[in-house]
Amino acid sequence: MSNESSNSFENVSIIVGVSGSIAAYKAADLVSKLKQAGADVHVVMTRAAQELVGPMTFHSLSMNAVHTDLFPEGGSDKPYHIDLVDHADLMLIAPATANVIGKIAAGIGDEILSTTALAAYDMPMIFAPAMNVRMYQNPLVRRNIKTLEDSGFIQVEPEEGYLACGYIGKGRMAAVETILAVVERTLIETKGLERRYPKLH
Ligand SMILES: Cc1cc2nc3c(=O)[nH]c(=O)nc-3n(C[C@H](O)[C@H](O)[C@H](O)COP(=O)(O)O)c2cc1C
Predict the structure, then answer these.
(1) Which of 22, 43, 46, 100 to mutate to test the pocket of ligand 1 (most atoms within 8 A of CB)?
(2) Residue 81 and residue 86: Cα distance in Å, rounded?
(3) For a Cys staple, 23 with which of 69, 78, 130, 134, CB 3.0–4.6 Å?
């Protein structure tokens, strides 16, 4: 993050969607750094993500409740996915699995993360894919990524390198610093732009 614009995160509310990639542990660092930079961070996690990292980690780092369920016990006054989007400036999905990318590209919202992403279409949307190189090169995944990009989503491309499953190739989630730089640049570029449904304060 650049020093001169380090306050681009202040008074900014960011939804961080964490899906079930082995890179989910890196999202903890991402959330911590966003919080330290001054952002209000709200994490939503898929069920698969919770198999890999506990919600309590994100709760502690973001100092906000973590949303793991579309239908929380006891209900909520306003559905979480709408309430989150009403108060957010930007949504970041990191890591983004092949599954979650495919669902959003197809307009499917069948759990908290994909449903929130569908509701968030009028705000800046960034996604950082993370998957095995075989999955990243799959023509179906390439098509889904292109669909998201054509719809205005900003992809932070994965890196080449050692992958958790022992492969060498492209698919490792971009470095946390790279993702933060894209978030910061996007916040600067979209500051003051009107949304179709303005943010509620
Ligand atoms: C240990 C482990 C690591 C995984 N890592 C990835 C990954 O990096 N990227 C990916 O697309 N899927 C990965 N998967 C598969 C996803 O978890 C699986 O497709 C799941 O249904 C994704 O659900 P979600 O998109 O709702 O989080 C992994 C599965 C396991 C068991």
Answers:
(1) 22
(2) 9
(3) 130
